[in-house]
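QA checklist item 7 of 12: single-chain prediction sanity check.
[x] sequence parsed
[x] length recorded as 168
[x] structure emitted
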Amino acid sequence: MIRQCDRTEFEQIYTIINDGALAYKGVIPEDCWTEPYMSRDKLQHEIDDGVVFWGSEDEGKMCGVMGLQRVRDVTLVRHAYVLTANQRRGVGASLLSRLRDLTKAPMLIGTWADAAWAIKFYEKNGFELVGPALKDRLLQQYWTVSQRQADASVVLADADWRKRNSEL
């Protein structure tokens, strides 16, 4: 079952993000890794900034989360994580499919450039990488990330975004 998370599930969201993010440890630049990967304060900031989390439940237990954040004319997919024990079982694909159904706006996703499995996952689900110059512009326009994180990231766009921005 996929449903919108509520305020009482903050700790579950926090746990899933930090467990799922372990896949990035040793893959992303060392200076971009923190313990925990996302602090409670950072998670609260993201929620306060408009990220709405959706969760996937398996046998009554939340096992994956994915956030949506509307920024101007697009919807960003933010903080997509699945518990390590539940990865590679279709949880992420189900969440992404449901979230795509929830928005009419074009969607963009940012992820780490060295996370080949994440990029492949999004490409398999209909997103395409944008070029480096456009990536930099999109990160500045829609995200708030450090220059270091921007340098180590990629952006993927869905077909709606590509259609509306075909001149780019």
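[x] summary fact logged: The chain has a mean pLDDT of 96.
[ ] second reviewer sign-off
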